[in-house]
Amino acid sequence: MTTRSIPFSLTIAMAVTMMLAPFSMDTYLPAFPSIAASLDVSLAEVSRSVSIYIFALALSQLIGGALSDQIGRRQVLIAGLVMYAIASLGIAFAPSMFTLLVGRACQAFGAGWVVVSVPALVRDRISGQEAAKLFSIMGFIVVLAPGIAPSIGSAILALGNWHYIFGALSIYAVLLIPLSTQVILKDVPRRGPVTQKKSLLTRYREVLAVRPARLFLIWQASCFSIMMIFITFASFIYQEHFGLSESQFSLFFAANIATMLTFNTANRWLLSRWASIKILRIATLCQIAGAALLVGITLADLNVYFFLPAMMLTIGAMGAMTSNLQACFLEFFPHNGGAAAALFGATYTGVAGLLSALTTLLPQNLLSIILAMAACAAVSFIVLLRSMSPSESKVAVAT
């Protein structure tokens, strides 16, 4: 491993590959009504495919990450792309809702193997501030995926039916195979790394045994849960509670993406001057401040133009958090990078998915939703304080 920077072309290739998972989550959202009509099911049943995708994505990362440490990044990455391409093609020809749900689980399994391989490959090459910069550049591109995916899905629907969307996703994965072999894996040995044979459980036990690193797992899970809760209820918040039209909702939702990109850009600039942990703490405080403002605005029953800036601050801060959290966490694992990346991704994805699902059991009003987000922000604040204590501040990211 080296601390040098890596070519920009490799950074772009990694980011485009990492986009596969979030892009797959949102591209078919505009097709929900047509899928429901085509398969003669309710919208609620189609919505279930999102939850299945999220939980399968979390599980697959746990398996794929440890396997990449044992048999090699190349094998896991390519296998994931092939699995994803075949599953997407199967969904495109799905004759029933059951087949679609099984296909979504298989699709997520392949996507999980892909997205867990890329951070591990980054950790194999570089560390410290350089790793944080790379994750931030990749994050800038990956953040765009959820914002543009529904629009691309709508464009595909204009050309054909919902089957075309999954056919396009299959083609996307197929095109990523030569990109991966020729760019991402160009200098990666064909054979897996020579490591001591360990079970998956042993590898994850070793990762979890590093106490300072566990702090960043909790940190990422809590802050990402805030965003997942917002995504789950965004339509309810803006369209039902505040009464916005569909076009207004799109603009208000896009404002959060724009703020995330702004934080991401600022993060990349600051990484040349400050340590990752310092930027992370500031961004976390911004998110906590935004959540506190949301509670006050909701209790005061102020209009949407007061609500929007607070939500933009709360969600936008994620643009400077995830890349630094990932870099700080992976810094502890020069050898079990695949297992560490898998545990990181699976933990925050699984916890956020579970919490966002549980919030649907709360009373369906704005205050309940905002208090759930504030509770996650409170956990982030506690973790932030722990990161500043002498016993928990042994962060290896370069200062």
UniProtKB/TrEMBL annotation:
Keywords: Cell membrane, Membrane, Transmembrane, Transmembrane helix, Transport. It comes from Pelagicoccus albus. Its main location: membrane. It comes from the Bacteria. Belongs to the major facilitator superfamily. Bcr/CmlA family. One of its GO terms (molecular function) is xenobiotic transmembrane transporter activity. InterPro entries: Efflux_drug-R_Bcr/CmlA, MFS, MFS_dom, MFS_Efflux_Transporters, MFS_trans_sf, Sugar_transporter_CS. It is found in: Cell membrane. PROSITE patterns: MFS (PS50850), SUGAR_TRANSPORT_1 (PS00216). It holds the Pfam family MFS_1. Residues 10-392 form the Major facilitator superfamily (MFS) profile domain. This is Multidrug effflux MFS transporter. The keyword Lyase does not apply. The chain crosses the membrane at residues 46-64, 76-95, 101-122, 134-158, 164-185, 215-237, 249-267, 279-300, 306-325, 337-360, 366-385. One of its GO terms (biological process) is xenobiotic detoxification by transmembrane export across the plasma membrane. GO terms for cellular component: plasma membrane. PANTHER family: CHLORAMPHENICOL EFFLUX PUMP RV0191, PURINE EFFLUX PUMP PBUE. It is a multi-pass membrane protein.
